[in-house]
Specification:
Helices cover about 40% and strands about 10% of the residues. It is of the alpha/beta class. Strands 2-1-3-4 form a four-stranded parallel sheet, sandwiched between helices. A four-stranded parallel sheet has the order 6-5-7-8, sandwiched between helices. Helix 1 crosses helix 2 and helix 6 packs across helix 9. The chain starts with about 20 loop residues before the first strand and ends in a 28-residue tail after the last helix.
């Protein structure tokens, strides 16, 4: 089963055999959906990470401001609905299931439901477009733990990561272009293009292509938008302070740009596919507040969400795994990512 990855170092990275799938699994992070779920959710997320209690309580306040409801689960349900409609439009009737790593519906419960429904071979789509332990391998590990604990569980393949898929790029460029359509040509030419993604521990980043893939997405979008320069930075750092994480942080980048005389910034959160809590809090509140203090005109571009190009891309990738010798759509300087993960792919660090 390719969800396990390759069984030897010289195993093929691409699966060119036509497949039939009984179902699709959308695999995501999860979030609370009520005030009484916030702290249990954060404790689940932080298990084994030694994050101080006061830090969790501070993060909990972000959720309490939304009555304890994270937007992410409903956003994923909306995406699943859009996927179902697009699949049906193309003549595919397989159901789409929803499983999370950190909250209900937990992936183990979802795999149990799939098994009970008679699913034998499923395809997993992870809501992360980039390779790293927390963005890919850990999701695979979650699915593996689930299927190994359930007698008769379905087998799983996975969809490749999509950071350089043309339709993902199309969605980003379209959303960014629309976001600044009201600017004058002078404002646009004088602005700085800033891309953000979730920071991860440096040791984890060194075991994956995360930084290179993010930079490639940034470069392609910049070129498509007619910018000669761009800045890639990070947000949403967590964990204990003494462990180094990827930087620069977006707040530091905004300060540097203001010092250099920049007056307008376009912030594109390429590391996220929906406007969930980290995007809302870390960009729409914290980063925007910093920009206002620095007297920067700040535009935050929406995430790809339900953009037709993004939904179409997901179904394209599903169909890609169903075809023999498929043409794998890709743009930029890097090849299409692998279908089957190498043995030592995306280690924790």
């Amino acid at each position: 089963m390719s969800i396990y990855g390759a069984d030897r170092a010289d195993a093929p990275r691409y699966d060119d055999v036509a497949k039939q799938y009984d179902a699709i699994l959308l695999m995501s992070f999860g979030g609370p959906e009520g005030m009484d779920e916030v702290m249990p959710f954060l404790e689940q997320v932080s298990t084994g990470r030694n994050i101080p209690r006061n830090r969790l309580e501070a993060v909990a306040e972000h959720y309490y401001a939304f009555d304890g409801v994270s937007p992410i689960n409903q956003q994923n349900r909306d995406l699943i609905d859009a996927m179902r409609k697009e699949l049906l439009r193309r003549g595919h009737t397989m159901p789409v299931y929803f499983g999370n790593r950190n909250w209900h519906p937990f992936v183990t419960d979802t795999v149990k439901a799939m098994q009970a429904d008679g699913v034998s071979h499923a395809l997993a789509f992870m809501t992360s477009g980039y390779c790293c332990y927390s963005g890919c391998r850990q999701y695979r590990e979650d699915i593996i733990k689930a299927i190994e604990s359930i007698p008769g569980a379905p087998s799983f393949d996975k969809v490749r990561v999509f950071y350089n898929h043309p339709r993902f790029i199309n969605a980003l460029v379209d959303l960014a272009t629309q976001a600044v359509a009201h600017w004058s040509e002078d404002e646009r030419r004088g602005s700085k293009l800033i891309f953000t993604a979730h920071s991860i521990p440096t040791a984890m980043a060194q075991k994956s292509a995360y930084e290179a893939q993010l930079d490639e997405t940034s470069r392609i979008v910049s070129e498509r938008m007619g910018f000669d320069e761009y800045i890639l930075c990070y947000q949403s750092r967590s964990g204990v302070p003494h462990i180094p994480w990827l930087d620069p942080d977006i707040a530091d980048v905004l300060a540097e740009q203001a010092e250099q005389g920049v007056t307008h910034v376009i912030v594109i959160p390429i590391g996220f596919i929906s406007d969930h809590m980290e995007v809302i809090n870390d960009l729409d509140h914290e980063a925007k507040d910093v920009a206002e203090q620095l007297e920067l005109t700040f535009v935050r571009v929406p995430t790809v969400g339900l953009h037709p190009e993004f939904v179409g891309m997901i179904v394209d990738l599903i169909e890609e795994r169903m075809q023999a010798q498929p043409t794998r759509a890709v743009c930029g300087n890097r090849p299409a990512n692998h279908d089957v993960c190498p043995i030592n792919c995306c280690l924790r660090g």
